[in-house]
Amino acid sequence: MQLFLDSADEAQIRYWLRQGVLDGVTTNPTVLRRAGVTDRTGTLAKLSDLVAPGPLHAEVTSAAGGELVSEGVELHRLASNIVVKVPVLTPEGEPCLAEISTLAEAGVRVNATACLSFGQVALAAKAGAAYASVLVGRINDEGGDGPGVLAACRRWIDDWRLPVRLVAASVRGAADAQRSMTAGAHSLTLPPDVLSALVDHKYARHTVKQFLQDAGAPHGS
Ligand code: G3P
To answer: Could you tell me which of 38, 47, 167, 190 has the fewest CB atoms within 10 Å of its CB?
Structure first.
């Protein structure tokens, strides 16, 4: 299973790379805005260097059509480890499957993002997406079952031996992360605070403190 950091924060990326658990980084326009990024191309080039040979997922900002495809090709040319994120549809509900398919045929690795249903993942896979991002938290927000959608997608992908890889995204806490892993996500992208929460545990801290105290205590005490 691949683990990605959903962040453009260089210090956090370096920190988690040092922990030896990070396979790549994902971004989107919101993540870049939150990180205060003004030079998008420069930042993406820098992050792609930082995370190489792992993938940097970078999202297009055009809504659809030839403009989206050109932007996807430009992002792809920026660095060999860039995966181009393309929303599965426009805000008006027009599918971006043709754009995904054109990019895939041109040799661009596409991550079909903003998938909130099994059908969207299935069609993105048919269009040739290398990854499909299932926004687990946003499915749960509407009373759906994010991990359930992941599990159904994974069964279908395995049944048909398709090359698409599921990314569990919009993961808001440790429980969401754990459920997404066991539901069969091939990859998980986590914000830094969720990654921290995954390894932290109050009682584990207490346990380690006890071990360290006992290590320094006189024998038989
Ligand atoms: O990777 C998608 C993610 O950044 C969206 O997360 O928590 O805003 O639904 P969230």
So the answer is: 38
